[in-house]
Structures are given as structure tokens and as C-alpha cells.
């Protein structure tokens, strides 16, 4: 979070520097124009003093009035009212003209530096406070979810024990199997939440055969897929990723694809040298909703953690495109 705060502060400084650079460029042009007008006004005053004095006034150290043009000086030319063919030159000291611009611009830069410094301090304080609150909220949310998931996990464990006891007494195996599958399904849904909370250091990446995981998931969901056409086109493909995350991703997409389809689910795999893409397509039932359930956001986080992308499209069919890196 501190790194994000520093990056935002850096972006702020860069934005301010670019903005002030553009403003200062325009401002420098306007200052030069203003100084030139001011110098011209002063030169005209010296010219009038020369005329009124009958030619005895010669100006001061910065404005020299004479009938001769001086090279390497900024000079303004005026007509001598006494002689039509004679010019009067007001020669300005070049150091005076440069110093006028530099002094004014230096003051503006000093004010800008002070303002930017204060804004940077204020911006840093605000962003650090905001990020601190966000971080505290995230930690609180993680603790809450982990606590609820832990208690729910304990509840499932107790139910599994009860189920084992029922198996020893009941003869209706079909009912027991359905109950067992329901418990396992809830457990796998809860695992998605728990796995999202895993930190990066707990992620174990290894070579996993993706097509085998898909077939394993389909076999597990065989009961839910009864009465629906399953069209599967797979190739042998290996992914360097965390197997737990991959199982969660595939289970969530396939189970929701079956659940929200009317009559079919089509799974197709495409391979390149660097990526493996999976296309899941089904016909949408009336209760489809978004198609990925309430775990859509969680699923996207898990996919992103495995350096993959997840896209959805709803037209005539509902399509999910999952792209994973194969190396």
C-alpha cells in the first residue's frame, strides 16, 4: 500500500511538472510581451524628456538617448520633431532588459515551488490516509470472511461425520449420495472464497495437465449434466499454475455453465505456443442471470492471480473465454 501511495505521489508530481511547464511557457511569452511594452513606455518617456529639454537630456544608465544607434543594444527609434530627416535613438542597456524578465520570472517560480510543495504535502497526507483506511477495511473483510468460512468449515466437518454415521444405519444409498454430493458442492464453493484470501507466498505453481482437470470436473458434475448435451473438444495441454486455483476456476465455470443452460454446454480448447484458451458456450435459461453466480468477482481475481484473463459475452448464447499462459 505504501508503494501505491508513493506511485500516486510520483504521478501527481509528474502531472504538476507537465502542467506547470506548459503554463510557464505561455507565461514566459506573456511576461516578455509585458516587459517589452513597459520598456517601450519608459523609452518613450525618455524620448519626450529629450525633446522637451531641447536635446540636453541624455537619459540614465539604463536608457541612453542620443542621435546615434548603438550596436548590441535594444533601441527604439523616434522622429526628431525639430528635424524631419533626423532620428532619435533610445538605447536600452541589454542587462536591464534581461534582468527585468528574469527577476519577474524568478519570483513566479518561487511562488509556484511553494504552492506545489504545499499541495504535495496535502496530497500525500490525503492519499496515505485514504489508503490506510482501505487497507484496514480489506484486513477487516479478510478476517471476517476467514472467520465465517472457518466456522462454516467446522459445520461441514460435523455434517460429514453425521453422514458417515447415517451410512452405517441407512440402506437408501441414493439419498446418502445426493446428500454427500450437496455437502461437497457447498464445500467447493466455500473453497473459492478461502483460496482468494491466500497470499502469494502460499501459491504453489507447478505443471498441471489442464485437459485432465476438465474431464475430472465433468465427471464430478455428471449428475447435474443429465439430460443436457455435453460437447467437449480438448487437446493435451499443460499449464504452469497453482492446481488448487485451476480446480476452483474450472469447477465454477463448468458448474454454472451446466446449471444455467437449457440443453447443452460446449467446451472447446485452443492452443498456441504461449497460451491455452478455453471457450465455454451454452444456451441461456430463464434463470441464467450473469451465468457465473455470485462468485464472478472472486473468480476473476483467481484467474488474474494465475496471469490469465476471463471474458464473457451474452448474445444468442452465453460465452465465457478463459485464456491461460502455458509457460
UniProtKB/TrEMBL annotation:
It comes from the Bacteria. GO terms for molecular function: ATP binding; protein histidine kinase activity. It is an enzyme of class 2 (transferase). Its EC number is 2.7.13.3. It is a multi-pass membrane protein. It catalyses: ATP + protein L-histidine = ADP + protein N-phospho-L-histidine. One of its GO terms (biological process) is phosphorelay signal transduction system. SUPFAM superfamilies: ATPase domain of HSP90 chaperone/DNA topoisomerase II/histidine kinase. It is found in: Cell membrane. This is histidine kinase. It comes from Hydrogenobacter thermophilus (strain DSM 6534 / IAM 12695 / TK-6).
